[in-house]
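ok so I'm stuck.
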Amino acid sequence: MSVSVVVVDDSDIVRRGLLALLETDPELEVVGQAADGDEGLEVVRRTSPDVTLLDVRMPGRDGLSVVGEMAEHTTVLMLTFTDDHASIQRALADGALGYLVHGTFDADSLAHMVRAAAQGTGTLSGPALAALRSGPSVPTPAPGDHDALGLSPRQAEVMDLIAQGRSNGDIARELFLAEKTVKNHINQIFAALGVETRAQAIVLWMGRP
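replied:
not stuck anymore, here's the structure
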């Protein structure tokens, strides 16, 4: 079963490049494209794609101003040159499942991330994760502050590893747990934090007092 995709970016060159990358994977089907936020919303509402790749800076309504509305109809992956911490934090808080920065992926990895997004798994590229860690509006928590958001010590250990970009398998090996146990911890963490994605959990965890 193919994954339907919409691309929203004001640069015709960037859109063509993304289309070329996506078309290398037979499991992905581009069902629409747009050059600004308003047009993107119209296309998304009309086509209901599985995943939408959304730029941040565009004329008219930009990606940050429409991501919340788009997320009601599609899974949104931000795909942009913009890597400042404020934009990343806002996009993820407003409903984007992941945040990818141009130049950090190839055709195979982009296709993999789009397919993963369609299954509900978000991705933060290296620059996006680094911006969340180091941005002045997302301070690094002090040691011993693990219970600030009401998580248990074990949940806090899991959350620390999630914030480092570790996979469930990595976390299981690091903490000597079964992957099923890790998944249960993550579900409990999401419920405790009131979030639905890893990206949103990282924003809250790294921004806590």
